[in-house]
Design goal:
With about 220 residues, this protein is α/β, with parallel strands linked by helices. Helix content is about 35%, strand content about 20%. β4, α6 and β5 form a beta-alpha-beta unit.
């Protein structure tokens, strides 16, 4: 019988200053650690949920060191990448260039995106929502900057099934199941969306991916 999800108190990393400090140190090893949780196969599986055209305007919210950005660049020539961590962005600059490369970088907050309404055809965010103090507000922002008919894709950590891991997850950051994803996306104004669980072979349900069409 599946465990009924109860929204926990805010985790220690659902605080922007703590998250920035966390990534100051994690950024140095992020690209070596990340494949154990979210690898190229998972990224490709998520990308396959989208219908991306070469001339689409694409935004990667919480782009970090640029792992998802790299996958998006296989479909379009230019990606806009935003992250709140200066240290993560420094790693991304080293890969793509800070100003003259294929990525248009901005440092900013997912809950206050520095873009106009109806700007992007595709808005992607992977490995970021779990750090947002107000995920519903962040999801509203993703919807706001997406064009009507545009696509929003969000990857977050699936809620663990075992109690011991649930307690650890609740203490750290946001983990959520499909029912909670339904609530958050509906509250943020989405009506057309679906969820897919995915992950590496040792834990193929470690992530929950939601893809939505903006009306």
């Amino acid at each position: 019988m599946p465990v009924r999800y109860q929204p926990p108190p805010m985790g220690v990393l659902e605080d922007k200053s703590r998250a920035r400090l966390f990534y100051k140190y994690l950024s140095k090893v992020y690209d070596r650690v990340n494949p154990f949780i979210w690898n190229e196969e998972s990224r490709s599986e998520a990308l396959a949920l989208l219908d991306i055209e070469p001339d689409d305007r694409v935004l990667d919210v919480g782009c970090g060191t640029g792992f998802a950005t790299e996958g998006l660049l296989a479909h379009v020539e230019t990606v806009h990448g935003l992250d709140q961590s200066a240290h993560q962005l420094e790693q991304a600059y080293a890969k793509f260039g800070k100003t003259a490369g294929p990525v248009r970088f901005a440092r900013g907050d997912a809950e206050r995106l520095p873009y106009r309404d109806d700007t992007f055809d595709v808005v992607w965010s992977s490995g970021s929502i779990e750090y947002w103090p107000n995920p519903v507000e962040g999801l509203r922002e993703l919807r706001r900057v997406a064009k009507p008919g545009g696509q929003v894709l969000v990857v977050g950590p699936n809620y663990p099934r075992r109690t011991v891991f649930q307690k650890l997850a609740d203490a750290i950051m946001l983990f959520y199941d499909e029912a909670e994803a339904d609530r958050m996306f509906r509250e943020a104004g989405y009506t057309d969306f679906r969820h897919v669980t995915m992950g590496p072979s040792y834990n193929p349900e470690i992530a929950i991916t939601t893809v939505a069409t903006v009306e």
